[in-house]
Amino acid sequence: MPVASLDDIRAKIGEEIGVSSWLTLDQDRITAFADATEDRQFIHVDPEAAARTPFGGTIAHGFLSLAMLSRMAAEAMQVPDTLKMAVNYGLDRVRFIAPVRAGQRVRGRFTLDSVEDKAPGQILVRHTVTVEIEGGDKPALTAVWLGLLFV
């Protein structure tokens, strides 16, 4: 993750702070996620059956696209130079807008909404995140992501 001083991070409130590189959600990753979560609905794992749906083929789980935020954030979100540890605090207003077809590429776009002192040595950061689909008219998802930083 990019490192900056806490003052520099606070100065970027309201700004887009980073965009991740593109990441392919291929069938192998989708199938592995289906196995890990035991969500093996045919639209995710059966190309023949999924081809007969309006999707025209298999699609990634919405939760897979959401789970990839951690990987995307590693490239795009800034953390304070005094960071000891960061944990997920939650998500607000998650919306799955467009399906990600197997083989499509996605990336995360991060805007820093707020930085709040939660307790001594703890800072709550709020980011608006959009997961874009390469060449798509609509994003795969949008969410407000909360992280608790221990500094």
CATH homolog superfamily of the domain at 3-23 and 69-150:
Hotdog Thioesterase
**Could you say which overall geometry the principal axes of the C-alpha atoms support?**
elongated
Extract low-pLDDT stretches: none
Termini, distance in Å? 15 Å
CATH class of the domain at 3-23 and 69-150: Alpha Beta
CATH topology of the domain at 3-23 and 69-150: the name is: Thiol Ester Dehydrase, Chain A
- Overall residue-averaged pLDDT value: 97
Structure notes:
The protein is an alpha+beta fold. The protein has a domain at 3-23 and 69-150: Thiol Ester Dehydrase, Chain A, CATH 3.10.129. It is built from six helices and eight strands. Strands 2, 3, 5, 6, 7 and 8 form a six-stranded antiparallel sheet that branches. It has a two-stranded parallel ribbon with strand order 1-4. A hairpin with a 2-residue loop joins strand 6 and strand 7. The longest helix is centred in the first third of the chain and has 11 residues, at 27-37. The chain is elongated. It starts with a strand and ends with a strand.
Summary?
With 151 residues, the chain is α+β, with helices and mostly antiparallel strands.
List the helices and strands and how they pair.
Layout: E1 3-4, H1 6-10, E2 16-19, E3 23-25, H2 27-37, H3 42-45, H4 47-51, H5 62-67, H6 69-76, E4 79-80, E5 85-96, E6 104-119, E7 122-133, E8 141-150
Parallel strand pairs: 1-4
Antiparallel strand pairs: 2-6, 3-6, 5-8, 6-7, 7-8
